[in-house]
Specification:
By secondary structure, the chain is an alpha/beta fold. The chain folds into 2 domains: 90 residues, no CATH class; 321 residues, Alpha-Beta Barrel (TIM Barrel). The protein is 33% helix and 13% strand. The protein is built from 14 helices and 13 strands. A 10-stranded mixed sheet has the order 10-9-8-7-6-5-4-11-12-13. A 3-stranded antiparallel sheet has the order 1-2-3. Helix 3 crosses helix 4, helix 8 packs across helix 10 and helix 11 packs parallel to helix 12. The longest helix has 17 residues. The two termini are 18 Å apart.
């Protein structure tokens, strides 16, 4: 019996299938409850395949590899015990230099989508990535539309359509951003619909509206992750975002999110102006109960850009100081995927890099972004769009975005001979993409199977 092999004392098989999604084409087991990605080796994939197919995984394993049934049963039990206990330990989703099947298969639909709900925002960050505030040649950025009357919102009927297609096509995660997404007049309904549709739901917010009551309400509606922007100690943060109440509101939101039980991630821009404060900030957020910090190295735009960038190797030193300040209890990541050699001009390297830099964002390979006016692109930082999602997210993804990103990721120069290229893919490729390919035929895509398996 499958139940006996896994262990009824842990969870029954139905609960395992409810909690996890198996994507065999990229050897991925996704924990929907905690948002963890488990990359599977051949043996593990056999165990999961058998479990989801309703066969006895121990018997399947014993037959496939010619091992004793008792040993196979012990291995299967240990495997599921480790997967079920994974949220209680530090977890790495990918390993530098290892074969990464996610980078070699063209998925028929993104595994994750980031959806902009609105242009409206009550902050005026002089480093904002929103494309409607893109810097001019001198580095000057536009200001936010601070009222919902002046801003463009994603229409509710379009939000419903996006969520329905994503859920039907096996998308795993949906992150809502803006602008400031909580200024969308129907943001609660949109988040609830996404969660009710089975999508792992996240909110990227500045925290203005996230009181303790609101956080509890969103958590009960199914929101799992809150990402909160915090860019330094109070005076620095307030100055950088152009709102005198920003620090007070963000810290209130951090405490509310932690109290609600949602996973709380602090997102921090790091540049030469605030780098010295980051270790103190890390200690403060850890004391508040936050377990995750994302550092986003600033990329300047134009000759008068007020922000000074910081070298990636200096970012690594800041991370060391943050870990020391928090007793290595804070999980730190650099989500915008720098080159693993940590150099402006790439060089081939052989040793694995430190874990905070070890992955790649996979924009246009695993995930995509939808603008507030309903247009698909590979990354929310991109000014190029592949078309309106009313034409179908899947076709735009397969025929325009994937071919363009594949071409942009073709290794050249030092990257071509680097043992880490399979993991880092040469770092951020945003600057390589100024438009998307014309439609390509289905048969030219790298084969992948359908959306994935869940109960």
């Amino acid at each position: 019996m499958v139940t006996e092999t896994i262990g009824v004392a842990l969870e029954d098989v139905g609960a395992v299938r409810d909690r996890f999604v198996f994507r065999p084409e990229i050897a991925l087991l996704y924990d929907r409850r905690f948002g963890l990605e488990h990359q599977l080796n051949v043996t593990a994939a056999v165990v999961v395949e058998a479990t989801f197919a309703g066969r006895d995984p121990a018997a399947t394993l014993a037959e496939r590899f010619g091992v004793d049934m008792d040993r196979a049963a012990a291995d299967v039990t240990r495997f599921w015990q480790q997967r079920l206990a994974a949220p209680s330990r530090r977890h790495r989703t990918r390993t530098s230099g290892a074969p990464v099947r996610w980078a070699t298969v063209d998925l028929p639909f993104p595994l994750a989508l980031e959806v902009e709900l609105t242009q409206a925002c009550n902050w005026h960050c002089d480093f904002c990535y929103n494309t409607w505030k893109a810097a001019d040649a001198g580095g000057r950025r536009g200001r936010s539309a601070t009222t919902t009357r002046r801003a463009s919102h994603l229409p509710m009927d379009l939000a419903r359509r996006i969520i329905a297609e994503a859920a039907d096509q096996g998308c795993l995660r949906m992150r809502f951003s803006g602008g400031e997404p909580t200024l969308h007049p129907e943001y609660r309904g949109i988040l609830t619909l996404a969660a009710d549709s089975g999508l792992d739901t996240e909110l990227f917010t500045n925290g203005t509206g996230l009181t303790r009551d609101e956080a509890a309400r969103l958590a009960s509606a199914g929101l799992r992750v809150v990402l909160l922007s915090l860019h330094g100690l109070p005076s620095t943060h307030t100055r950088m975002v152009g709102n005198p109440a920003a620090a007070e509101h963000t810290w209130r939101a951090i405490r509310a999110s932690v109290a609600s039980g949602m996973t709380t991630v602090v997102e921090t821009l790091i540049c030469a102006d605030n780098a010295g404060q980051i270790p103190t900030l890390a200690a403060q957020i850890r004391d508040a109960g936050v377990e995750h910090l994302s550092l986003m190295p600033y990329v300047p735009a134009g000759s008068v850009d007020p922000r000074r960038p910081i070298a990636l190797r200096d970012v690594a030193e800041v991370i060391d100081r943050c870990l020391a300040a928090t007793g290595h209890t804070l999980s730190i990541a650099v989500p915008c995927a720098p080159r693993h050699c940590l150099r402006a001009d790439p060089v081939a390297i052989t040793p694995p890099v430190r874990p905070e830099f070890h992955n790649h964002c996979a924009a246009g390979i695993l995930w995509a972004s939808i603008s507030h006016d309903g247009r698909l692109r590979h990354c929310p930082h991109s000014t190029a769009t592949a078309g309106e999602v009313t034409a179908g997210i899947g076709p735009l993804w397969r025929h325009r975005i994937l071919p363009t990103v594949r071409a942009a990721l073709t290794p050249a120069g030092a990257c071509g001979g680097c043992t880490q290229f399979a993991a880092c893919q040469g770092g951020c490729h945003l600057h390589k993409i100024t438009g998307y390919a014309d439609a390509v035929p289905e048969e030219s895509l790298r084969p992948a199977t359908g959306p994935g398996r869940r109960a």
